[in-house]
Design a protein that fits this description.
- The complex is a heterotrimer of chains A (322), B (319) and C (460).
- With 322 residues, chain A is an alpha/beta fold.
- Chain A is built from ten helices and twelve strands.
- Chain A has helices at 54-61, 88-93, 111-121, 128-138, 144-148, 157-169, 187-204, 239-244, 249-256, 298-302; strands at 5-18, 26-39, 43-47, 69-74, 77-78, 94-97, 175-179, 207-212, 224-229, 232-238, 308-311, 314-316.
- In chain A, α3 crosses α4 (128-138), α4 packs across α6 and α6 packs parallel to α7 (187-204).
- Chain B has helices at residues 47-55, 81-88, 110-121, 126-139, 156-167, 186-203, 214-217, 238-243, 248-255, 294-298; strands spanning 3-16, 19-32, 36-40, 62-71, 74-75, 93-96, 174-178, 206-211, 223-228, 231-237, 304-307, 310-312.
- An eight-stranded mixed sheet of chain B has the order 6-7-8-3-9-10-12-11, with helices on both faces.
- In chain B, α3 (110-121) crosses α4 and α5 (156-167) packs parallel to α6.
- In chain B, 50% of the residues are buried.
- Chain C folds into two domains: 7-49 and 243-459, MetI-like fold, CATH 1.10.3720; 76-230, Jelly Rolls (Sandwich), CATH 2.60.120.
- In chain C, 52% of the residues lie in helices and 17% in strands.
- Chain C has helices at residues 7-16, 18-40, 43-47, 163-175, 186-189, 246-282, 284-299, 302-312, 317-327, 332-345, 348-355, 360-396, 407-416, 419-422, 425-459; strands at residues 79-81, 87-93, 98-109, 117-136, 142-157, 206-216, 223-230.
- In chain C, strands 1, 2, 3, 4, 5, 6 and 7 form a seven-stranded antiparallel sheet that branches.
- Chains in contact: A-B, A-C.
């Protein structure tokens, strides 16, 4: 497999203006200076709570949302300013899997039609029927005949998500953004879908951006991880190191918040940081996390820490680490 | 601790174009005062239907609704709708519905929405109800100004607290919580769970907690009911279920929980939940069970006591 | 297999509700009526609607014949005595050089009420003849009703209307020393017992004879006669003042009403929905422009403009249809389709389609418009009555198509024919009832459809 970066994102900003007639312009700073690389065949997990900007980041990488500034370079080509009508080729290579398995499928299309549409639109060569059957087999919806004629409301959540995955993969993309693909599924089904994604990645060499708020799942389907808070990365590195030895207080808080099936949990309060992520309109000065941080120091209130390398391939943005 | 609520042989079937859906098929359990009972299972196993059956919010196409719901010694199933609504619903048993935070009235201030059940049921005047509403919002950890906000101005966690405040409006004894944290981020979820623990202590509540997330259930549950295909397959204390699950489904549920603590490979349950219109013959779980025996395909196992206060419905454990 | 909100749901909703079934049955009945039109009353009959001679054997302003089942004194039906029923004697008198032709017919009159009209047609096959017409009552009273010469060809004696006939009858009665009632029409006098003065008139039942005596100098002279004793009832729907069988008009009015209503409803709703959806989907300037145009359209007073156009230009029904559609290109459905499209645009599968490269046009026509179809269908059904009424209203005002036998035209003719003043209830009530029934049927079906269309939208 050729090495090298499939995707290079530098200083990406996505700001949405809110029009106020009588006050100065306010912006929703959804993504606020994000940089990362995505290598071929690897999965980068973007972990954060809602409002962290992770979904916006994913969609912007696919040019479904226009970036405000920064650059997006895919396979050596700068696509930051390219308009939608010239991105037909990109729409074949890069796909998305959505969080809600119901609203991401057209309720008026059968499974067959849902999978056929991308093929028709992109004028794919080859027997469409064959490609559709293969895609359904890949996601293990077998026997295929049982599923091709069904409408989304006849399928379970897990089955629908498989259809969504099949739709994303039928064009043989090289880059897939998986936006919370298992968050709306039952816990018992999540692992099945994640293993499926891993299997498909190994087989086809696809690069994934796995966006999630559930840090417990990243172990099963990611190579590297980036923790996002209020539009920025606060920590990144390989899965092993970040999860076993989290540096940033927010990362620690996320890990602490995960419930374990331990019957003793009910006798004690879970250790958790208070409050909620800031609104992207009103970002706190200094370190964005300082209002909730148990280790906040005076400098955190004034100056914003920069994401810097503390070990090899390990980055943190926190005054605790200089 | 005495039994506050005894549910026996609860049945809820409803009619659809394809046939009769046996959403709740002979469900029985006890809830003792001050305890939390968790009902866990996959989507479509009937756990939400069990909750709505208890609080009697029934769909229009109901076919069968029977069994006994004995609240403090009185079978409230037998009460007619009017009396049930006056005496039981929201007063003694209230509910936080799945996705309720998204069902808040978008054009009404949050304070009014919390005050409404007070005005309707307790016949309080508007100002009295509003001030009690502010009290309730404080109880769930929300500052007073929230009462003057509209739902869209609040975050997910705050909205969920509002809904919990509404459920507590009339000082119920039992609160049914149907997936109260499913749409929330993990930190917010932990905060809400802590709130629920606090409220339980301070307001002497008993919970029926419904979720598909076994790990989450462990935060609150004293007793656990595992449901599958409309039936109870296992029932016991939290210690028993988490440390020594007997039914293969319970075991698989536990084994499928993503965790950072250990490195073992997770298991998942192949296949899909059963069709409640025509469930598989015999044991409903047998098509997905790794230990299925011939008898499982033919006869449905009965929920029976295998140890003291421990019930399983599985042929692995005899009759 | 059914999709949510798809055709299956629509059909189910109609069939499952009471209003739906009632509406549908009425509509089916009307459609059956329309097909009856084609079978029972073929087009060449309907084509003669404006041709008076086609209807000449029908009585004028006759009631529907089923009225007789409710009334004890039965209304008479038309008796036609054709030439074949006349016995003919002819002989030629050499000495005088005259040909005598005598036609005599006999008929039984059993009714308790007088006929509405009498008419005798004579066809004289010679240069001229001198004709005497006699009317012989069952009692034997022989009344000369006309005397005079006829030219060659068709001659018609309007017994009921001609003043000279009246004079002849009066003279005859006087000579026979019978009472001559004043202010009474010949069709009454000829059937009445004139030996005494009556305050009330009832016809005498029995065998009546009509005798035509013609004298001509042409030895080959021949004469044919036809007598029509017009009744007071006819057919299933009666007749109008031009003797037209109203059943033909009503039956043929059905497909015209349905066609007009449906075509107008379908065209306007489809166009409005498409425009509204386009407006939302392409947004920006297009959206602004379309919204302003729609606002203007909705302010324009529809009916007054339509009336103005109809007054200035004599328009036929199909031009009317085009004008109506033209005045309804933008309307309420535009706004609703627009907001529904906005709702759908927010759904993820639309964004997903963009992500796999579907063009905007494809998404509009394949993804968005099908979602709007149930709503459009319900709207179509609900707007049909409006258009049916519109066409009828224009016709009643005299502004519709003058040639077609539409229900509105029949009502219009009824008004100008004095139906209200003279109490000719069937002429107005029957077409009105049909218009109302049609409107009700569509309204009921539309009501039933409403249940499908609205909750679906709310859920999504």
């Amino acid at each position: 497999m050729p090495t090298g970066n499939l995707l290079e994102v530098r200083n990406l900003r996505v700001w949405f203006p809110i029009r106020r007639f009588f006050r100065e312009a306010l912006f929703v700073r959804a993504v606020d200076d994000v940089s990362f690389d995505l290598r071929r065949g690897e999965t980068l997990a973007i972990v954060g709570e809602s409002g962290s900007g992770k979904t916006t980041l994913g969609k912007t990488c696919l040019k479904l949302i226009e970036p405000t500034s920064g650059s997006i370079i895919y396979d050596g080509k700068d696509i930051t300013r390219v308009s939608n009508k010239d991105l037909g080729w990109y729409r074949r290579e890069a796909q998305i899997i959505y969080q809600d398995p119901f609203s991401s499928l057209n309720p008026f299309f059968t499974v067959y039609k849902t999978l056929e549409e991308p093929l028709i639109v992109n004028k794919m060569e080859g027997d469409r029927s064959e490609l559709i059957y293969k895609a359904l087999e890949d996601v293990k919806l077998t026997p295929v005949e049982e599923f091709i004629g069904k409408y989304p409301h006849m399928l379970s959540g897990g089955q629908r998500q498989r259809v969504a995955i099949a739709r994303a993969l039928i064009l043989k993309p090289r880059f897939v953004v998986a936006d919370e693909p298992v968050s709306m599924l039952d816990v018992s089904v999540r692992i099945e879908i994640l293993y499926l994604l891993k299997e498909l990645q190994d087989r086809y060499g696809i690069s994934f951006l796995y966006i999630t708020h559930d840090i417990a799942t990243v172990k099963y389907f990611s190579d590297r991880i980036g923790i996002m808070y209020a539009g920025r990365f606060v920590e990144s590195g390989s899965i092993r190191t970040v999860v076993s030895d989290p540096l940033h207080p927010y990362t620690k808080a996320l890990i602490d918040a995960i419930p374990d099936p331990d019957p003793r949990n009910r006798f004690a309060e879970r250790k958790v940081i208070p409050g909620e992520p800031p609104s992207p309109i009103n970002i706190p000065p200094g370190c964005r996390f300082h209002p909730r941080c148990p280790y906040a120091m005076p400098i955190c209130r004034e100056k914003e820490p920069i994401l810097h390398e503390v070990e090899k391939n390990r980055y943190v943005a926190c005054w605790l680490y200089g | 601790m005495e039994d506050l609520l005894k549910v026996r042989d609860l049945k809820l079937y409803y009619r659809t174009r394809r046939g009769i859906v046996r959403a709740v098929d002979d469900v029985s359990f006890d809830l003792r005062r001050g305890e939390t009972l968790a009902i866990v299972g996959e989507s479509g196993c009937g756990k939400s239907s069990t909750a709505t059956a208890i609080i009697r919010i029934l769909p229009r196409n109901i076919d069968t609704y029977e069994g006994s719901i004995i609240l403090d010694g009185v079978d409230v199933m037998k009460l007619d709708d009017g009396r049930f609504r006056e005496e039981v619903a929201w007063r003694r048993i209230s509910m936080v519905f799945q996705g309720a935070m998204n069902a808040l009235n978008p054009v009404m201030k949050v304070g009014f929405q919390v005050a409404e059940p007070l005005m309707v049921h307790s016949k309080l005047s508007r100002s009295e109800a509003l001030s009690k509403a502010r009290e309730l919002l404080g109880l769930v950890g929300l500052p007073s100004f929230v009462a003057d906000r509209y739902p869209h101005e609040l975050s997910g966690g705050m909205k969920q607290r509002v809904v919990i405040a509404m459920a507590l409006a009339l000082n119920p004894e039992i609160v049914i919580l149907d997936e109260p944290t499913s749409a929330l981020d993990v930190i917010t979820q932990a905060n809400i769970v802590n709130l629920l623990k606090k409220l339980k202590r301070e307001e002497s509540l008993s919970y029926i907690f419904i979720t598909h997330d076994l790990a989450l259930a462990s935060e609150l549950a004293d007793m656990i009911v595992v449901m599958y295909g409309g039936k109870v397959v296992e029932y016991g204390t939290a210690e028993q279920i988490y440390l020594d699950p007997k039914h293969p489904y319970s075991q698989k549920l536990l084994a499928s929980i993503p965790t950072l603590r250990t490195d073992k490979k997770l298991e998942f349950i192949p296949g899909a939940p059963p069709d409640l219109v025509s469930p598989p013959p015999g044991c409903r779980f047998h098509p997905r069970c790794p230990y299925a025996m011939p008898i499982c395909r033919e006869k449905e196992p009965i929920l029976h006591e295998v140890e003291k206060n421990r019930y399983v419905a599985c042929w692995l454990y005899g009759e | 297999m059914s999709r949510p909100g798809g055709l299956q749901d629509v059909v189910d909703a109609v069939l499952r509700s009471k209003t739906g079934i009632i509406g549908l049955s009425i509509l089916i009945a009307i459609t059956v009526l329309s097909t009856l039109a084609l079978v029972y009353v073929p087009f060449d009959v309907a084509r003669e609607w404006n041709n008076p001679s086609f209807w000449q054997y029908n009585p004028r302003l006759a009631l529907p014949s089923w009225v007789n089942t409710f009334i004890s004194g039965k209304f008479p039906e038309t008796i036609i005595i054709s030439n074949d029923s006349f016995r003919k004697y002819s002989y030629y008198l050499d000495i005088a050089g005259l040909k005598y032709c005598i036609l005599e017919a006999e008929f039984l009159y059993p009714y308790k009420d007088f006929p509405s009209e009498l008419r005798l047609s004579l066809y004289v096959d010679t240069e001229g003849a001198f004709v005497t017409i006699r009317w012989i009552q069952p009692s034997g009273v022989d009344i000369i009703i006309w005397k005079g010469s006829f030219k060659q060809g068709l001659n018609t004696v309007y017994i009921s209307r001609q003043i000279d006939v009246r004079e002849y009858i009066r003279d005859s009665l006087k000579r026979l020393n019978l009472t001559v009632p004043s202010m009474v029409n010949p069709e009454v006098i000829l059937f009445m017992d004139n030996s005494v003065a009556h305050s009330e008139f009832t016809p005498v039942n029995g065998r009546y004879k009509v005798r035509v005596e013609a004298v001509s100098s042409d030895p080959y002279a021949d004469i044919k006669a036809e007598l029509i004793v017009y009744g007071k009832v006819y057919g299933l729907a009666g007749t109008d003042d031009k003797r037209r069988d109203l059943f033909v008009g009503l039956v043929w009015g059905a497909p015209i009403a349905l066609a007009f209503g449906l075509l107008a409803a379908v065209a306007t709703n489809f166009i409005q929905t498409l425009v509204g959806s386009l407006s939302a989907w392409y947004g920006g300037l297009i959206d602004e422009v379309i919204q302003r145009i729609t606002d203007v359209y909705m302010i324009i007073p529809f009916l007054p403009i339509l009336i103005t156009i109809s007054v200035i230009y004599r328009i036929d029904i199909w031009t009317l249809l085009i004008v109506v559609v033209g005045l309804s290109l933008f309307g309420g459905a535009t706004k609703t389709a627009r907001s529904m499209t906005f709702q759908i645009m927010g759904e993820q599968y639309i964004e997903a389609a963009i992500s796999y490269g579907a063009s905007r046009r494809r998404i509009l026509f394949l993804y968005i418009l099908p979602r709007l179809m149930p709503y459009t269908m319900a709207n179509i059904v609900l707007s049909v009555p409006g258009y049916v009424f519109l066409e009828a209203a224009l016709s009643v005002l005299g502004l519709g198509d003058p040639m077609m036998p539409t229900w509105g035209k029949i009502i219009s003719d009824a008004y100008s024919g004095g139906a209200v003043v003279h109490g000719l209830w069937w002429w107005i009530l029957l077409p009105s009832a049909l218009i109302i029934l049609t409107a009700i049927s569509f309204a009921f079906i539309g009501l039933a459809l409403d249940k499908v269309v609205n909750p679906r939208l709310r859920e999504r």
